[in-house]
Amino acid sequence: MKFRCRKDEFNNGINIAMKAIMGKTTMPALECFLIEAKDDKVYITSNDMQLGIRTLIPAEVEEGGIVLMNARNLSGVISKMLDDRIEFESDDNSTIMIFGGNRRHEEQGLPDDDFPRLPEIEFSQSVSISQFELKEMIRQTIFSISSKENNKILTGELFEVSGDELRIASLDLIRVSIRKTKLGSEYEKVKVVIPGKTLNEISKVMSNDADDMVDIYFSKNHVKFEFGDTVMISRLIEGNFFNIDQMLKNNYETKVTVNKNVFFNCIDSSTLYIRETDKNPVIFTMTDDNMKVEIKSSNSSMNEDVPITKEGKDLKIGLNPKYIMDVLKVIDDEDVNLYFFNANSPCFIKNEGESYIYLILPINI
Amino acid sequence: MKFRCRKDEFNNGINIAMKAIMGKTTMPALECFLIEAKDDKVYITSNDMQLGIRTLIPAEVEEGGIVLMNARNLSGVISKMLDDRIEFESDDNSTIMIFGGNRRHEEQGLPDDDFPRLPEIEFSQSVSISQFELKEMIRQTIFSISSKENNKILTGELFEVSGDELRIASLDLIRVSIRKTKLGSEYEKVKVVIPGKTLNEISKVMSNDADDMVDIYFSKNHVKFEFGDTVMISRLIEGNFFNIDQMLKNNYETKVTVNKNVFFNCIDSSTLYIRETDKNPVIFTMTDDNMKVEIKSSNSSMNEDVPITKEGKDLKIGLNPKYIMDVLKVIDDEDVNLYFFNANSPCFIKNEGESYIYLILPINI
Fold this sequence. Notes:
- 2 copies of one chain form a homodimer.
- Chain A is of the alpha+beta class.
- Chain A is built from 6 helices and 24 strands.
- The first copy, chain A, has helices at about 5-15, 70-80, 130-140, 195-205, 260-270, 320-330, and strands spanning about 1-5, 30-40, 40-45, 50-55, 60-65, 65-70, 85-90, 95-100, 105-110, 125-130, 155-170, 175-195, 215-220, 220-225, 230-235, 255-260, 280-285, 290-295, 300-305, 310, 315-320, 335-340, 345-350, 355-360.
- The interface of A and B includes residues 82, 105, 269 and 301 of A.
């Protein structure tokens, strides 16, 4: 194999494919990129057995071929090159040579036999959405997936297509995060659970330009994201997700509107006195125009009066400050609305159109 | 005690005094600031038993007094305040109240009895130098102090005043780093070893403005740095430092001049293939106008031709790439000069005026 390409384009492809490279493993092939040159195209493929990535880099192919090279070594070699033109060569013994300027790297690669190829799957329908919007929806929900592997389904996010609506949700049994958006067209129903890790990695490589689209293909056990010159295929998590609609009863007795930044700063400051081991709630006492925020620990306390707009009954409720901050961090609105039924029912944070809905269980006080 | 002050000025004082606050200890007083209000001045003092700091913050003192407060708590409380005006109060039971805007923090402080006061020492002479220059000199030498506590003297830096010259040096038995500068006046001889940790912390709080001066006072066992509203007192390391002058023999058979950035990038790239456990040297072969840089590991290799200007004999020598990079990182010159005697003698990196001299022992090849 022999090809020439631009350093920045090679680098870009490497950075994308790196998202499906494992840390230290006992299978050297899983720490490698499959590099393949054919028909004047160069593909870089990676596969960590859950997520697989294939991306294309523009190149001038002089001789086709295929080889496995350690991904971190390739990334290091290319990123440190000072010259903009790179030449990549491998011979029949999988010896790899990389040239740039006066520099020559040589490394023993591996034959491609051991590499787990991306699965060939028939996908039914695809849904098209802006990459930026999908990234935002993931960012605004992924913080409440569970990190505990003993309830596997909660380590993923629900992706639900219904008519022209896409809904993404995650939950960890104490809180729920939901984002909804309108799609451009009507689609058949889909309901799958995508691993959180997949969504994290995909978010890192998708574009910030709202006009760049991604096509999402679904099959029984896999999901495929296609955008630009890149394909990412992930396994789905099997099993039934919790019934979210059942949790979203809309009754409330108290509605509070508060400036997001002031509210965030207040709660952030209250957590100074909370060690992870104490589980002291922050106590909110809502009366007309005022929310008293209080927290006590063994030898300290903090309180603050935060101005609010209130509709409905007065209320006193205890909430975990970390969970509220997690939500406030991802909301872009200047003011947020909190809805309460009573001190034992969940607090809802949502906007008028319900494009986002967050639910947090209270703590008994 | 009761005083009012500006948030930013309080914060600034806290950040300075924080440099002598211990991590977790069994003595709560060592995790505390001593906060003292008297004569319309507020002092914050910290002491980790090696380094002690006292800094002054502008304040309006309503009632004098003294109290100990956990340093990290105070830092958190003040830095998160939204209001610019802070009010600080403590009562006879060492209960502390801090007010800002609508927020009120309360914390149980400690009486000041347990706090280790800064030592009262008579210092002989002081040396005056620009804060920025001192910072630079520390940055350019501190990387080669030893981290091994079993040879305590090497965990510090030599500060040597002789006539109108200040010389700072560190060494770890494989390499030596030296910086020299002219002082404005003539001083009596001083030769002390200051702990590396002290120099690190001092560097973090000194000004980047070349016109701001620091006065350095020496005694038998302590050094004191005075600058702005801050005093830092550190213990010295006892013992005799190595005789550096003996190592600085000036004979050389080969002198090489090379572009620093090109050289750095080349060595940086060569280290991709070196795991910490291999101790492969980088091999430099210097001929007219060219330095071949080569490195080999079990299944890879790299080589590059780097353009140089050479005076004297051709030479082949092995060097530890990390040590060369450490030096190149702190040199600001565009080109660097390397001096060699033979393959078994140290490599010197220095400028014409010898305001910096670095010495690195070679590796046998």
